[in-house]
Structures
1.
Amino acid sequence: MTITKSSLIQILTLSILCFAISPSIDFNYPTVFNFGDSNSDTGELVAGLGVRLDPPYGQTYFEIPSGRFCDGRLIVDFLMDAMDLPFLNAYLDSIGAPSFRKGCNFAAAASKILPATADSISPFSIGVQVDQFLRFKSRVLELQAEGKKYAEYIPAKDYFGKALYMFDIGQNDLAGGFYSKTFDQIVAQIPTILAEFEAAIKTLHDQEARNFWIHNTGPLGCLAQNVAKFGTDPSKLDEQGCVSGHNEAAKLFNLQLHALCKKLQGQYTDSHITYVDIFTIKYNLIANYSRYGFDQPIMACCGYGGPPLNYDSRIACGKTKDLNGTTVTAKACSDSSEYVNWDGIHYTEAANQYVASQILTGKYSDPPFSDKMPFLLSLKF
């Protein structure tokens, strides 16, 4: 029997709702601050650098490009929706008088944990994002001193200590490294990368942050971009068609990130630090894609070149370009919900929806929280 995605989500929702009868702690955060890369960027890079995203980006949900590197919503959007909070506005997107009362998103596509270099696409490393937060908080406190006229646009003073601080970053530190470094060199750099991440957490903790939600990095060896570049030798691929070296680096990174989170849990006894195993969720989706109603686990929905990857590094999704004397356009597939991968690098809304539903079961987190999330009753997807 074939299980459709709509049926699957209904089953997941019903099973998750059963957790509501369990004892629970307060998980109703008044606001959320997010730090990361394109996995959770809701418009930062587009606003900050003027990067242009053309249709079909955004077509599934927003109907126009929304600043997200996706056909629709991201994992962070589904998580915000589950907490009954509005989607996060990007810190640098000032058009339309955005409200930051319920949160602010500092995540920017192509960002790394390590400081940017001259050839970096994004200057917004984790350190810069944290500096932006410090400026944000300082300015909020200044505006609050002027009275209540900005109340609907900025967080209350006590929100900073009650907020949820979310992180999804590190993928670009690893993936970018493979273009110039050996596997051993990349692995050797992981402690340095995580020392930078730990410094960011400490800075935020010093600024009243007490609730941390930390995603590990996903199976980057399963992205069409990396398979196209580094997977031409079949011996370098695993049984799912993913680049083994990339995924091994991600696993080693995650192992050390998990150890860091355990250390921080012991160090910051006044805080809640949750480590979320995104790698296992995403790799399970790719390995068992048909079970969850998908047809294509690796091939990009929006791209050029056709099967098996439909990805060509010379032409990005939505762009038209002359290749070898022929004008071609990287177009979207007819139904993105059949694909895990959107543009060779990022996931489709349908895949993000599945990942979010698995995160919300609580079983992929340390500590697990399946009995501690009363907001699941408002699950909307």
2.
Amino acid sequence: MLSRASTRILPRAGTAARAFSSTPKNDIKVLAVLYKGGQAAKEEPRLLGDCDADVLITTPFHPGYATREILQKAKNLKIAITAGVGSDHIDLNAANEHKVIVAEVSGSNVVSVAEHVILTILELVRNFVPAHEQIVNGNWNVAHIARGAFDLENKVVATIGAGRIGYRVLERLVPFDCKELLYFDYAPLPREAEAKVGARKVDDLDDLLSQADVITVNAPLHEKTRNLINKDNIGKVKKGAWIINTARGAIVNADAVKEAVASGQVSGYGGDVWNVQPAPKDHPWRTLQNPIGGGSAMTPHYSGTTLDAQARYAAGTREILEQYLTGKAIRPENLIVKDGVYATRAYGQREQTA
């Protein structure tokens, strides 16, 4: 699953990740996760990188999972850089224990993902995918599509998570004249930000699920958000609501969603994140269907990797790497863990203990 190459030239934005060296820190080994090795890697182990790297670079889109076991073996690893946003593919608690810095390019794809959330909401609410499939298949049945199509206006829309992405989703929903905008987050928005979008904080998740016509998940994955929407509480979702998840697949229980969409309890589910990536061919979300034949707006994980976003996170990855190699301070907003403690509250409320 890992591949490594060596060069002494730092890449420009958009180029492939490689192993780098610089004057202040000579002979630095950088391991870049590029592609899945699969059966070929089993037959030819040299395709795989080893665990002696000083720097690990990976992405959320085709992640290399830095598990506790891997980090235990990575005796020389000093920093893990996520080329993008979301470092849950790294065991952050283990990284803290081994004093491995974890950094990501915060903010690099927030606009890209927020736009994809709005796109997916409209795809589901307007029953767009089955309509498009009719045209591709040479059919024309307006009534069949219209019975599952609605306006976003006058709907209650809720976001689970109101951080950089969640708040931008709320901003982009304002022109649609929704009945109400709700948010669920451990941290309340500043009053002026809350007033700007007219959003109301709901403190109880079950209460939020029961009120919303549209639920969008915009929270990081950690211990408290894993399986947050599950078989026990999905029945509390307002009947006929739509769920959108462009955060992390494991926040929502895959089987619970499949059953809820099939029964009509949930009208549809859409997003681009899966609990395992790449998603296996038999993943339950590949065959989502509600009782009238729609209900799915799933894609591969690409909402945050538009060409515009790629340029931003490539430049950000280079910046973090250069800061590390030259001994400069990494910008605080890009730090996830450092010196054995969490440097951010983005991954939940945590005690800052060494």
3.
Amino acid sequence: MSTHVSEGGASDPIAYCRDLVRKRDYEAFLTSHFYPREVQGAYLALRAFYIELATVQESVSNNMIGKMRMQFWRDAVKSISDGQPPRHPIALALFDVTRRAKIQPYHLKRIIDARDAELHTPTHLTLDSLLAHAESTSSTFLYLLLSLLNLSSSHTLSHAASHVGVTQTISTLLRSLPFHAQRGRLVIPAEITAKHGVNQEEVFRQGGNAKGIDDAVYEFATVANDHLITAREMFKESGGKVPGQARPVFLSAIPAALYLERLEKVNFDAFHPSLQMKTWRLPWRVWKGYYAGGF
């Protein structure tokens, strides 16, 4: 199965990826400008690949079509490794990345497998299941970025990236809670919602007014914040500062951290309208994070 893209996309793969990231992942596009110029195109290619997989679930009418899309990307990764990428702009851009950097196909396949599994189990019964999914998606993507910058051998950076990936995953789920609730899906693990007596149907009908939902959001957000704190503590020997070459990778923690701060200010009401709006503070915080070395 192939995807429908214009011939222009195939003739300028990086431009296609840049446009896709700019339109569909504002935060990633914002942080892309802080990568060294020589790898910005590679970053955009990897992020476009990640977005493509993350949005399959919402863009197909049934799971079978979704599985066909996932198989296309499995075959594409193998073809890229064999030096014969399919004529798809993201695949062509990834092929260029693999020629310039030591990108492990294993990481690409791991993300595909996790997104494929998500087609069948879009929600999680336990927190452990959710954390495993975060490790196979968000954290694995950060490992790819460390490889892109020739930093994958650092245990400290990889360990910190693992925790940042969990924070990103949970903050993304919390931010999308209203979207999924409208579609009859509760993305907080059942293990947490059951503890607080949350009734799914009430959440679908009443949103933030449902009994126990704020407490469940608080507990879920606390897990995200705990992982963020752990990631920051990995850099305590350097005064809390991320090494200069690795800073672009850890800028991706800033949108998640800022969202958690905003969530706390509205008393963990994940349905509060203000949380769906962009904040002017984000570009400033990203700029500050890059030059100060924090996240």
4.
Amino acid sequence: MDLAPPQAASKLRPSSSRAHSLVSKLNQRRSGSGKNVPAVPEDIDVADLTPGDWDISPTLVESHAADDAKVVSGSELYEVQRSYEDVTLQVDLEGLRARYQDARSRSTSPWARIRFQNGIAPRNDAVVEHANLASAASDEVASAALSRIISKGDFMHMNVVGQFNLGFIIVRKRTPRVDVVGKEEPELGFEDDLFVVDQHAADEKWNFESLQETTVIDSQRLFRPQPLNLTAADELVALENLDVLKRNGFEVGPVEVSAGIDCDEEESSPNARLHLIAQPVSKDTVFDMKDLEELVHLMQDRPKGTMVRCSKARAMFAMRACRRSVMIGRPLDRSRMTTIIRHMASMDQPWNCPHGRPTMRHLSDLTSFGGYNSSFRAVNWREFGGE
């Protein structure tokens, strides 16, 4: 079966005049050296892969080198000792700088190109695009990007632009750029961005974290204290966080505290040093020993006294927070919208609601628009009937 030759072979041009000229020059240097070095055949088959209009000859300002050379002919290699001296090259730094500026102005990112034309300092467009509403990035990627371009303190200085579609708050973040040491330098320009905030998701996250931090779950005392068969490390963690357990509805005490109370002898262990005296109760949620074990496990990775909640409690708080939050379709005044934005500054994780719904996304970089004016104008809410 005949096989077609590779396509790459058809693209090789036959020997060009430039290639044969190079062979002639090598032979002239050989004859002038006075050494017995075989000549390069004139009819050697050379494939010239460079475009016809390319000038591949180097230009040296000053060179001092011997006339010795390496000559390759067929499969044989002839090497002659060669010594090198310094070669001086001239570099036009101003020309390189001008070319760099021109290349940056021709960036593939339209944001970077227009910011350069407006005299605005560059920024990491990849991070901004990951946080943008139109990028459709995953929640994990978008949250990580938002945490890099927004600090919690920024929520205290964001300006409310208005409400969109009775469900979203448009805010403007305008902050001076910082130098290499993190100091704000207004002369470097400003970062001026618009963000869209889901009013229900943001308010729900605030209510959820407030419930997690402040709620004390009711408990019911057991008829007989139940022994806790925990490891020594888990018992130590539980003893250091008795108040946290109690606020979760689990009342735990040492054996001597419950010594005067009849215990469940069938489940009692001679090594048990802690007893469960009361456990949490709720109208719609049933708690058990697995929830207590989950709490002890969560407390191992946190500082002493840090509030933790088991998964059942978090689901219960998420449902309560959803019911009491601002709903989509409700018109908000400036004061209520500002309160929702300011609350985000105190959240532990402000990027998603407890059900996983994103709270905000980047909407637009105002410095990327042509004719951008860095002067700031606040919204005149009186024109809209606001206070």
